[in-house]
Amino acid sequence: MSDKLLNKVFDYVIVGGGSAGCVLASRLSADRDVSVCLLEAGPPDRHPLIHMPMGIIWMMRSKVLNWNFYTQGEPEMGGRRMFWPRGRTLGGSSSSNAMCYLRGHPRDYDEWAALGNPGWSYADVLPYFRRSENQERGASEYHGVGGPLNVADLRSPSPLTRVFVEAGQETGLPYNIDFNGSNPEGVGPFQVTQKDGRRCSTARGYLKPACARANLTVITGAHATRVLFDQRRAVGVEYTIPGGRQGGVQQVKAGREVILSAGAIQSPRLLMLSGVGDGQQLGKIGIGVRHHLPGVGQNLQDHLDVILVQACTQPVSYGVTWRTVLRGGVDLLRYLAAGRGMFTTNGAEGCGVARSAPDEERPDLQFHFSPGKLRNHARDLLFLCGEGYSLHVCNLRPKSRGEIRLASADPLAAPDIRANYLTHPDDLEHMLRGVKLARRILAARAFDAYRGEEIVPGRAVVSDDDIRSFIRNKGETIYHPIGTCKMGSDPLAVVDAELRVHGMSGLRVVDASIMPLLVGGNTNAPTVMIAEKASDMIKATRRG
Q1: Which of 75, 92, 219, 280 is the most exposed place for a label (fewest CB within 10 A)?
Q2: Of 292, 424, 480, 502, which is the active-site residue?
Q3: Which residue ranges form the domains of the chain, and what is each CATH number?
């Protein structure tokens, strides 16, 4: 960094160039009278496999573009340390996720508002969903056009995805062409955040067009280590560029606000490293307490997921076979020339949203259908070989709660993640019912011409106790951690309804960590909405 930049005071410093940070950098820098600095720990999003949808398989294995977090041993999951991938590049997890565009149930947001967060009802947030979106199907009451985030139908879906949708209907699920309308329940194809068959991350949709602005500075490879304070006012951020030529610790100053958009793991971690959190825990690892805020890192929620895998008797899946290897060259040319073919798959093409029991007030299950065999986040390359298909089962409304802690005062040390999956007994029963429903879908008549043997969990898993054991031993994250800097006014709330950190000034958190409760669906679209809404709040504070 030049000496000129080191001595500059920006109006806004944003920590984290991910799903929320890119939105904020774009919206705030649109005002030429303010200056914005965006810090991202990862590199620029130049790698071609970021932009190729099927590149998600490689992103799961990358040691550079993925944080590769692990939980502590999960007590109800066989003591397993569970892999938690998170994006580490411009665009964050929107540069490495499955691009599924799902907002959740309208009542989810009304529940946020009812918890003491005015301005966050579904009626309040819908305009921000619409503003963010360029819906290729066109504008409607629920959808917008002209926004930075392109939302499209899959261009070359697998024929197995159509079979899954038919099977879901045979099982009693209604066909749903729009999971983001008035009712998300049913079965149908996912829409995806893609444009011309390529990933549309927030880096591509929001940040790239803004990068030419003279009032926006983007610093990559910048690992934030603490927030700088004057008493209880945030005045900047300290960061390091590990292995960088400049070396040592750098600082960037903020004249108006510091905004943490580092995600549900890193935002609470940075607050705690800065002395904002539970005073007793911070004292144990030698961090001075600036502000006792016990909710920092608490209220961690995530969607637990388990995958059923079926062999396929027809040569139509995306498994690694001689057929797909020989076809790969042609499909790569199709992808490069026209954005079509196998390489445009998001890996989770079919969606189901259902109730595990008739008395559920809202859908509590989500299915992701993959036209290939998956295990261990597709990192098990050998398992990908052969014809097959997979059905993910996810409990949308878990009652278990985890936490993020600091493992030490070292700002570069991995965080202590305790998801505490299945520690509430209700969660296992929802998953049990979900696996049974998934098996009924895979046994439906539509799959008769394709169905081979059940590979996972297998024919030996029959009883309820067998299925419970399968869930404990094979369940994994579906990548939706939220809630660790939750919005509210209760004793464990971290931010208020304006996303300002309680007891501090000049400091906000804007990312999935502020969600008080999980939404009933994928979390990327809601995170983009949160940042869109926050940008208006921040602008209003400046004007006021």
Answers
A1: 280
A2: 480
A3: 1-56+84-149+193-300+402-415+480-544 (3.50.50.60), 155-189+304-397+422-474 (3.30.410.40)
